[in-house]
Amino acid sequence: MFNSRFTPWLFALLLAAVFGCGATPPADPSTPTAPSTAATPDAAESPKAEIQWLHDAYSTALTQATQSGRPLVVDMWANWCHTCLSMKHYVLNDPSLAPYADRFIWLALDTDREQNAEPVEQFPINVWPTFFIVNPADQSILARFQGAASLEQFKGFVEHGERLYRELAESGSAAPCGRPTHLIRRGDQAAMLGDLTTAIEAYRGALSAAEQGWERGPEVLVDLIGTLYAAEKWSECVELGLGRIEDTGTSASATDFIYRARACARKLDAADKRRSVLNERAAKRLTTLIDDPQGALSADDRSDAMVALRSIRLEQNDETAARAVALKQLAMLDDAANRAATPQAAATFNWPRAEVYVYLGRGAELIPALEASMRALPEDYDPPYRLAWVAYRTGDLDKALDAVNKALDLAYGPRKGRMLSLLADIHRDRGDRDNERKAREQTIEHLESLPEGLVSPRQLDSARKALADIKR
Fold first, then answer.
1. Rg (CA), the chain
2. Of 8, 235, 270, 306, whose CB neighbour count within 10 A is largest?
3. pLDDT beyond 70 at 38
4. So what's the pLDDT on residue 37?
């Protein structure tokens, strides 16, 4: 689940940041500071500007950050990632972020694009999106946020990253020990190096050192439980899930925490009673989140919570309850898509809608909406890809074949490999073994041509196995 790949130079660079400690400064405040004007002394007189994102230009962004003395915010995203699109259209464009615009250099990196292979390998991720705050002086990670953030979470994240940047610039030494924000950084750095023991210790330390109700607590709990999963500490992971499930706030962090806790529970013996206890508590928590009109969940976040609740009901063999959740999810997503301000924003919901429509056996009903999304976004590979998937799952193989070929004309990177695999499946179900074999060979050829770091070994192994199965 967690990718621990890293380059030797990155290991050397991060070693001191992870294991080095300077003098401990005064106690860390439990709440973020007000927006600082340290980097922009004339900010009070200057009009507030919207965030100007650089795209797919790491070297340029790093140079600007170095020259301006500002930390670098990096959004590692992908066009197929509905959570990434939700963040882009419903959080990162919020006008209340304007005061932060001139305090950072802002960079968005499409992790599927070959031109971004070097920074993607330099800053490996396992969750889309992942946000980093980078110190331009040495390219070390000041802060990391995995997954969807509420607006307030994102503000707190960048403020803490900026504070760390200022402290390091002033002290000229390694990060101090003992303070929650520094311990989070220690955990993030260790996790990226694959040192899961140190990461677990650091995240636990941050939670212990923080005051009750710490605003960054939910995201750190997600980091901790994810690292316990990666370390295969199933029992500890489940115990954390049972013990802290109520401490994960009202944002998407609550759903992410539950997802990881349940993933650990599935590794336990089937007779372990903690599995059913966790499911009951998780179902109650998710229901509260979904039904809370004052919660911090976006429509996309709420949809994810509904998927998690549906999964629990299915595991409990309650198909009626699962379908009821799915119908509620479908209505909510349709409403969100219809109210979206732009076709790009509406495309946020293409995949969640596709999944729930197909689950309910109503996939054909969504096809006109996906075709409209294709027409509105003619240069975007994702609408035709989603259309191909829905058509394939509903048995309309001719429409699926036409749509996937349109998607392939626009696709790139690892996602193109997935499309080629879908193309092969379509040919297989059409009884066209020759074209199936050709598509599977193309899948492997494409994946092998990508720069190191852009494709997972698991994806490539799966493609090779699928081709080998044909040749038997």
1. 23
2. 306
3. no
4. 34
Indicate whether 53 pLDDT > 70: yes
d(CA 431, CA 371): 26
Query: Among candidates 381, 289, 467, 334, which has minimal Cα distance to 81?
Result: 381
pLDDT digits (tens, 9 = 90+) for 221-231: 999 999 999 99
In a domain, 291, yes or no: no
Query: Does 136 fall in a domain?
Result: yes
Residue carrying the six token digits 């209340």: 96
Is 202 within a domain?
yes
pLDDT score for 401? 98
Model confidence pLDDT, tens digit, residues 110-150 = 999 999 999 999 999 999 999 999 999 999 999 999 999 99
Which residue, among 198, 245, 196, has the nearest Cα to 221 in the 3D structure? 245
User: Which token pair is 24?
Assistant: 């401990």
Residues above pLDDT 90, as percent of the chain: 83
**pTM for this model (two decimals):** 0.89
Number of structural domains in the chain: 1
The residue range of the domain holding 196 is 8-24+48-209
What contacts 180, CB < 8 A, 6 or more positions away? 28, 206, 207, 209, 210, 214, 216, 220
How many residues make up the chain in this entry? 472
pLDDT score at 238: 98
Is residue 170 domain-resident? yes
Token pair for 146 = 């995995």
Q: Name the pairing type of β-strands 140-146 and 130-135.
A: antiparallel
Residue 61: which CATH number? 3.40.30.10
Q: Give per-residue pLDDT as tens, 424-462.
A: 999 999 999 999 999 999 999 999 999 988 988 999 999
